[in-house]
Every structure is written in structure tokens, then in C-alpha cells.
Design a protein that fits this description.
This protein has 121 residues and is mainly beta. It contains 1 helix and 11 strands, in the order βββαββββββββ. The chain is globular and about 40 Å long. The relative contact order is 0.32.
Length: 121
Amino acid sequence: QLVESGGGSVQAGGSLTLSCEVSGYKDSTSYNHYCMAWFRQAPGKERELVASMDANGVVRYAESVEGRSLISRAYPKKGLNLQMNGLKSEDSGMYYCAADRRRFGRCEDNYYGQGTQVTVS
């Protein structure tokens, strides 16, 4: 189960930290075997990857957020955070926490949470 929080309305140039509470993994070791990610979807657009972290700790960011975002795993509660700075209006959308269905994957086949809305004005 994936439960997102931390969304809201923010002025352009501001910052937000999104959090995802993750359950269903036996322990932190098991949790670390799965790629975790944040996706977002703006109205009328397809869902896109914002940032991901795989089982080897390799991190990927969308070009549009690189340099002003940080994805991290949270312990001991097995969470996932996304810190975003210098927010722009184009960052607005529904943000989804994602967990790969397979061990050692690349977040290409995921479970998703219900999402948290981010609005930048």
C-alpha cells in the first residue's frame, strides 16, 4: 500500500516535500530490493516519471526537475520522499508514489498510490 501526503498549493519559486508511506514489505532489506518512484500527471497529459531510485541506489530524474529535486528513501518507516525546490507552474499536477511490482526492476511496471495534488501558481 502506498499513501502520499505533502501536496498543496504553493507559489512559484517555493518548495514542497512529498512523502509516501509504504507498507507491505517484510523489512527494510526487502523494501530496498524494489525500485521506488514518483510520477506526476497534469490535466490532459500522460503520467510521467519525475524521479526514481532503484535497488542499487541509482537515481533518475526527469530533465524538467533535475537539479532542483531530491528523491530519498525514509527509514525506519520504509517511506519515500520527494523534495522539490524552485517550483514552477508546469510542476502542477497529481503526484503518485510508485513501487515496482518486481524485485530489482526499473520502475517500469508499478503499483501506484492514490496521489497528492500539487498546484503551483
